[in-house]
Design brief:
It is a single chain. The strands form seven sheets. A six-stranded mixed sheet has the order 3-2-1-6-17-18, with no helix packed on it. It has a five-stranded antiparallel sheet with strand order 8-7-22-21-20, with helices on both faces. Strands 14-13-15 form a three-stranded antiparallel sheet, with no helix packed on it. Helix 8 packs antiparallel against helix 16 and helix 10 packs across helix 15. The chain is elongated and about 80 Å long. The longest helix has 28 residues. The protein is 36% helix and 22% strand. Among the domains are: 96 residues, Penicillin-binding protein 2a (Domain 2); 121 residues, Beta-lactamase (3-Layer(aba) Sandwich). The chain has 16 helices and 22 strands. Strand 21 and strand 22 form a beta hairpin. The chain is of the alpha+beta class.
Amino acid sequence: MNRQIGRLFGFFVLLFAVLIAATSWSSVLGARGLQDNPHNRRPLLQAERIPRGLILARDGTKLAINHRVGGGETLRYFRSYPTGSLFSHAVGYSFVSRGDAGLEKSFNRELTGQENEFKSLVDQLGGGTKDGDDLHTTLDPNAQRTAISALGGQRGSIVALDPSSGAIRVMYSYPNYDPNQIPNHYQQLNSDPSSPLFNRATQARYPPGSSFKVVTAAAALDSHRYTPDSLISGQNNKIISGVPLQNDGGANFGTISLTDGLTHSVNTVFGEVGEKLGKDTMYKYMSRFGFGSRLGLDLPSGEITPSGVFKGQRLLGSGDAVDIGRVAIGQERLQVTPLQMALVAAAVGNGGTLMEPRLVDRVVASDGTVRETFNPKVRSQVMSGGSASALAQMMSKVVQEGTGTASALSGIQVAGKTGTAEVAGGTSNQAWFIAFAPVDHPRVAIAATVERTSGQGGTVAAPIAKQVMETLLHG
């Protein structure tokens, strides 16, 4: 009898332990997962009773604020965006009826005060209201307005950042949208064929054309297989991967230096370089530049697309069948985001060190206490300082006397590279320009691209980048 009672007691103890474990997981261990579940609307409804933290630009401009409605049990706070579409893709939106996007989503816990659990508990015990913390971003409204004006209603994107810190100053994607219209016009915006909700700066995959030759040149120099003075044939219709490769306009060059090959964007020079370096070396340097990854940017992962060689939606590696000679000139199935190409320029300008890109500088409580500061973070050492310096001088010649002269700034040395990729069956181009300046102490790196234009990178994208750089360097 005692043995049966003992077994029964043990059974109930086990059930009780299971109950405690399940309850603990649900209320403590699983709480964050439940709160972050997009199908769980309860946190969103609760969040309406919390004044979300503000989102501010670098100069203090308020990009996201709250409006209070009602009082007592009916008290609610609703989000609005004073600058409208200015930073719509970076800032995003937050509405109970439509969810959230952009920084509003990736920093939701900070903006609703959930990151500081001790503060939340004290506030609740004291009967107070939990406040969200403010986000101070790295974004520059003045330079963003210049980008908007420079792009002039053309579809495309501009990304500009500080090479030494990774702080993003400009992130513009057009078409864009006004986040204030999300609650009432979401379906219309979502079904618009021009895709205004789509962040071209971080999500669009474009062929980079010759702007990618900067990556190839970095691999060539840093692997010590080539120098800026290495002589290579620029003959038109050179056989690369068993197929003739043409230069732009069928131009035929003799034996020229690697520097002149970059200055005049000679396809056959860089096609040969890429083929001789081989897939392993090319992919190694592509990886160092950030290709194949989401780059560590502080936006939701679903709003960032990796760059690389694609077969459909699958990224191809060095073990796959890839025409590396044509990858080396920005062709084949290579697709890139504007953010990735801005980081290519930034890494060269920063002495070969790639910094992690970021949109947020610090999180600050409503009483002014700094909760968290996001310091510059090294992502990778792409190449040596010597290789970066040599490549910077090569890119400077592109602006001084090559395809990028339209980006030249008065009294400031600019290093850049143009790119023009045929799209839509050869009837239009994807125009590119990437650059950094000043060359001796870079303070801005940039990528500008325009969709489906009849012009080229040097005539369409370079002048756009020039205007934004001028604002950032002189503003």
